Amino acid sequence: MSEVVAVIDYGMGNLHSAGKALEKVASGQQIVITGDPDQVRAANRVVFPGVGAIRDCIAVLRETGLDRAILDVIAAGKPVLGICVGMQALMARSEENNGVDCLGVFGGQVTFFGELQNDTGGRLKVPHMGWNQVRQGMAHPMWAGIADNTRFYFVHSYCVTGLVDEEVAGRCDYGLSFAAAATRKNVFAVQFHPEKSADAGLTLLENFLRWQP
Amino acid sequence: MGLAKRIIPCLDVDAGRVVKGVQFVDIRDAGDPVEIAKRYNDAGADEITFLDITASHQERDTTLHIVERIASQVFIPLTVGGGVRTLEDIRNLLNAGADKVGINSAAVHNPEFVREAAERFGSQCIVVAIDAKKVSAESESNRWEIFTHGGRKPTGLDAVAWAKQMTDYGAGEILLTSMDRDGTKNGFDIALTRAIADAVPVPVIASGGVGNLQHLVDGVVQGGADAVLAASIFHFGEYSVQEAKQFMQAAGVEMRLG
């Protein structure tokens, strides 16, 4: 039986890319895009992507029971990869949409970039969109073959702060320093889009498929 | 150290074929958007933009198939614009694998469409493309107006006010084309780029008029653009994307290299 990797589909955006990128780097694993909580629970590994507004995202997760499935998979010790809003949804709380309680896997907060200035006093554009450098906060199997300060593709207006240092796997600077990657035990979550980050992103996804936490 | 400026090659696609000739020397099929997208990806392009100029509605399905094929082989962001009029158009493109969708004349006809699109799909995937032309006389202070129909039809909309309105409505990025400069190879309209970049809180892509690598630098440094879009200088092999990036980096612009 080949391993099954579930990409959680909860109707929030472009899952095609994440699925296709995983298929590209998979070696024997079966990539399944699914919104069925039982299928998520049965998978060997789970990818939790997301785009759009956090309120809708959390609402759909709770309605469908996918929130419980994600927490169960995490509790079962299976590798879980959160991407973008998927990472944010794993935090305690987001200030988007007038404040939304999230899944609380991490204690971090999701905050708006706000009115930030660049080095010369100009206004920084939000969303933070494009290729920015990730400073790896720790040695980790997910960073295998990826040089420190490699650029990944970001697109987001809210970012994760307030994690304890041991959980910050990577940092990025954009007016402020925020968590570009968070990890605890069998969970790894990234604010950037590995499925859109060319070779570096594909390497990270390949690392995830091999990761034995 | 920080966010890099982006270089975005743009392809015109008609019924699934790249038109306005892309001339890579050793490419198997210069009309195949998938081949070309892969080539630009390998060359280090930061994103790819497709302008779908397909006239007939039936053939738009062809575009969706192309987007699907690209999205399964090219893992950098893909924007698709041209003829996007309904929420269904947007959903179809996103489901096919587009990361962002460009809205142009449909926004002029019905600005609320942009608001609905951003609310439904998120601002991050809604790019409003604006085609602007200078309408002020030399003696007056600069004023640009939005034009549709390839620059032929004036709308009476002030370009700066319009760009602001579109970001208020939820556009996550502005693709700004100077109709005066498009195709001239005389460089971006820097004053226009600067006026829009300073006016809106979201990233601005400068487009229209690139003839050499210094023009790219000027668009970013003088114009304040966050990204530069170019077609012919890359398509005809005058410069490679990598050469452009190295030139810009040498001029002090932060780029994604290597």
Structural topology:
The complex is a heterodimer of chains A (213) and B (258).
Chain A: E1 4-8, H1 16-25, E2 30-34, H2 37-42, E3 45-48, H3 54-64, H4 66-75, E4 80-83, H5 85-89, E5 93-94, E6 100-101, E7 109-112, E8 128-133, E9 135-136, E10 151-156, E11 158-161, E12 168-174, E13 176-184, E14 187-190, H6 198-210
Parallel strand pairs in A: 1-2, 1-3, 3-4, 4-14, 5-7
Antiparallel strand pairs in A: 5-6, 7-11, 8-10, 9-12, 12-13, 13-14
Helix pairs in contact in A: 1-6
Chain B: E1 6-14, E2 17-19, H1 33-42, E3 48-52, H2 60-71, E4 78-81, H3 87-96, E5 100-103, H4 105-109, H5 112-121, E6 126-134, E7 144-148, E8 153-158, H6 159-168, E9 173-178, H7 190-199, E10 204-207, H8 213-221, E11 227-230, H9 232-235, H10 241-250
Parallel strand pairs in B: 1-3, 1-11, 3-4, 4-5, 5-6, 6-9, 9-10, 10-11
Antiparallel strand pairs in B: 1-2, 6-7, 7-8
Helix pairs in contact in B: 1-2, 2-3, 6-7
Subcellular location (chain A): Cytoplasm
Pathway (chain A): Amino-acid biosynthesis; L-histidine biosynthesis; L-histidine from 5-phospho-alpha-D-ribose 1-diphosphate: step 5/9
Subunit structure (chain A): Heterodimer of HisH and HisF.
